[in-house]
Amino acid sequence: TVTRTTASPYADQGLTQGAHHYDLSQVNRWGQQSPSATAVALVDVAPPAPPQALTVAAGTSCGTLAITWQAPDPVPPDLAGFRILRSETSGGPYLLRTEVAPGQFAFTDRGAAGTAYFYVVTTVVLVDGVSVPSAPSAEASGTPQCQQPAPPVITDPTVAGQPIQWPDLVVGIGGLALPGSTLTLIQDGFPVSTLQVDEAASQTSYPIPGYSWHAISLDAAGQLAVYPVDGPEDEVVAVRSLASGTEVQMDEWPMTYDGAISPDGTMVAYASEDWDDYRGLWLYRLADSVRTRLTPDGTFVFSPAFSPDGLNLAYSRRNGATREIVIHDIQAGTDTVVYSTSAWPSSLIYSPDGSTVAFFESGTRLLDLATGQTTQLGGFLRTITPTPFSPDGQSLVFCELGPVAQRAEGAQL
User: Fold this and answer.
1) 179-182 contacts: CB < 8 A, separation 24 or more?
2) b/e burial code for range 133-159 (CB count within 10 A of at least 16 → b)
């Protein structure tokens, strides 16, 4: 509607409920029109209810505040979002910090550590394309915190402050730092790298009275540990419940070694010998304490490893002048030789999908169980630790001892 008037103010009559948009311009005596000024009038439009239960708390990172609220009651059908407003004085005036979508009920704000901030939130609806805010919610306040973290501790390759001569061109740096923090590595006064430290998980420490230089095996649930201990005459394999602390020792022979626990935590495989001869590979059932011999008496076996499904055992054995990797079917009781060599294949471990066995023989090797083909990964003198796969089976970590120093290697498969 176009209306010409010389009166001010001008009264527009008979308006209906909703939003009414106006453009106002001036016209001079020669008929020239100025640019328009715009305005919106809301007629009989009730503002929505404000949000409820506004809370403000210190955030998880330095200088942040976590702001949460709940939807208004009732929730308007034309809800367009929420506006978060902030002031450094209780009661305002408030300045707009941001506007968020209708389904969002949280916002992380930043501010100066130690400064109190006061917040309100408004509900926003759309009426004929016009944003209509509610009255402010109840006020809530918070103060960002930021504590200076403790310095990190370097433990590898040497304790901080103790110089060493490193023979390699590549130096691995290791140590301890605050979980969730960001580390900056500084060399000769210049930052050279940054690293995000993982958040801490729930941790519990368990004392294990075994040989500290031997590996400890855990079942998939992390409830049972298998490790060597001093037996009546020599080293024997022990199984410990981490929850109860109870321990069972495989001490029917003077020496038992190379213990491995099944993925479901129901069985332990181990090798044994006495002073006169080797006593082969054994399987111990934890539920009823039944021990079963898997190989003939007199067989020299070592490095047993369960398949991921717990149905097979891979192990190494001596067969005259030949050393073999054998797959033992636990249910059928049958053995299948999958690899023969004149060396000593050790530290056997299955890949997560059960298709490959990693082992050590003059370096770390991979054995494809379907084809019998092997792949050499390392060329150092001997292995130090078993060779665990990544959970997806695509990477392998191995630690070996070379002519100069121990070092960790990584291989992308």
Assistant:
1) 180/60, 181/149, 181/152
2) bbebbebbebebeeeeeeebebeeeee
| Amino acid (1-letter code) at residue 146 | C
Q: How far apart, in whole angstroms, are the C-alpha atoms of residue 129 and residue 270?
A: 76
What are the angstrom distances between the C-alpha of 183 and each of 117, 146, 193? Answer: 30, 17, 8
Identify the helix (H) or strand (E) that includes residue 341.
Answer: strand 334-341
Per the confidence metrics, is the pTM higher than 0.70?
no
Measured between alpha carbons, how far is 54 from 52 in angstroms, rounded to an integer?
6
What digits encode the pLDDT tens for the residues 256-310? 888 899 988 899 999 888 766 787 899 999 889 899 999 888 888 988 999 999 9
Asked whether 67 and 58 are in contact (CB, 8 A), the reply is no
Q: How far lies 64's CA from each of 58, 121, 151, 194, in Å?
A: 6, 18, 22, 22
- What is the DSSP secondary-structure string of 169-204? S----EEE--TT-EEEEEETTEEEEEEEPPPPPP--
Strand, coil or helix: what is 253? Answer: coil
CA-based angle 159:175:181, to the nearest 5? Answer: 135
- β-bridge partners, 344: none
What amino acid is encoded at 97 in this protein? Answer: R
Who's near 178: CB < 8 A, 6+ residues apart? 149, 150, 152, 197
Two tokens, residue 193: 């790298």
3-state helix/strand/coil string of 205-245: CCCCCCCCCCCCEECCCCCEEEEEEECCCCEEEEEEECCCC
CB within 8 Å of 45: residues ≥ 6 apart:
17, 18, 19, 127, 132
Angle subtended at Cα 67 by Cα 62 and Cα 73, rounded to the nearest 5 degrees = 175
> Alpha-carbon distance 285 to 185, whole Å?
49
Reference 127, options 40, 39, 11; nearest CA is 40
d(CA 253, CA 274): 6
What pLDDT digit, counting tens, does each position of 309-348 carry?
Answer: 999 999 999 988 899 999 999 999 999 999 999 888 888 9
